[in-house]
Amino acid sequence: MSRFAIWFGKNADAAIALILAVVVAVLGIGVNLPDERDIINSAILAVIGLLATSVLRDRGRRAPVEAEVRDTLRASSATLDGLSDKLAHIERFEGVVADTKRALDETTVVRVISGAEVARVLADARRETDRWFFKGGTGTYIRAKTLPECVAAARRERRTLLFRIEIIDPTHVEVCEAYARHRRSVSDGPDATGEPWTLERTRKEAYATILAACWHKQRFGMLDIDIGLARTMTTLRYDLAASRVVVTRDDPRGEALVVDSGKFYYGWVSAELQTSLDQARRVPVEQARLAPLDDEPTVEEVRKLFEVIGVELASGYTDRDVIEIIRKALRAKDPYE
C-alpha cells in the first residue's frame, strides 16, 4: 500500500489524466451506443487531456531543474576563476624555478682548479685562441709563455692575433713599491724564478714586458697589441682567451677560477678588462717601428725604444740594468715551473 501511495504521489497527474480519459471515453461510448464520431471525439478528448496534464507536469518539474543547472553553472564559473588564478601562480612558480635553474647552471660553470692545473689550463687556452686580454702585475708569465706561444701559433696559421695587456706603470714608484710590498707579504723569500721581490725588480719586470711586446710586434706584423700602464695595483691576474677566462693570484701554487666562454661572467670580465685598459696610460706601441730592435737587442736600441714610445727608463739605470731588462724580456723564467 505504501509503495502505491509513493507511486501515486509521483505520478498523480498522469493517473488523473488517465482516469479522466477513461471516464470520458466510457461516457462517450455510453449505453445509447453513440455513433463512431462520438467515440472518436471522446478518444481525442482523452488524449488531449492526457497531453495537457503531461505538459503541465513537465513544466512544473523543469523549473527546479533549470534553477539547479543555473546554480551549477555559477559554481563551475567560480571554480574555473579560482583555477585560472592557481594556474597563473603555477606559471609564475615555474618561471622562478627556471630562473633558479639557469642561475645554478651558470654558477656551476665557474670551476675552481688547483695551482698544479693552472699551467695546463692556460696552455689549453693558448692552443687556438685569436685573442688574449691580460690584467695583472708585471706580466712575467705573459713574457715567458703566453705572448711567444700565441705569436708562434698565429704565424704558423697565418692569422691575426689580438693582444691587450695592462700592467703596473714602471715609472710610477709608489705603485711599484706597493706591489713589491704585497709580494713580500705573501712570501719573504725568492719566488719560483729565484728572485725576491723588490722595488727595482718590480720596475724591471714591467719594463721587460713593454720591451717584449714591441719586440714581437716588429717581428709579426699581424700582431695587434695594446699596452696600458696602471697606477693602481691588483692582487688578481686575469687571462682571457677565446675559450675561457682564468683568474689567478700572485701565488702560482694557489687555486684559480676558470669560466668558459658563452657564460655571462665571461662577458662581464671581458667588458671590465676593456674598460680598465681604456683608463690606463696607453703605450704607443706603433711608434716602436722608429726604433728597430735586433734579434738580440743592444743597450742603445733599447734606450732608443723607450725614448720613442715615451716611457722613461729609471734615472741612473746602467747598461747592466738595461741588459737585465733585455734578458727578462726575451728569456723570462716560467713562474709555474
TrEMBL record:
<keyword id="KW-1133">Transmembrane helix</keyword>
<protein>
    <submittedName>
        <fullName>Uncharacterized protein</fullName>
    </submittedName>
</protein>
<keyword id="KW-0472">Membrane</keyword>
<feature type="transmembrane region" description="Helical">
    <location>
        <begin position="39"/>
        <end position="56"/>
    </location>
</feature>
<feature type="transmembrane region" description="Helical">
    <location>
        <begin position="12"/>
        <end position="33"/>
    </location>
</feature>
<keyword id="KW-0812">Transmembrane</keyword>
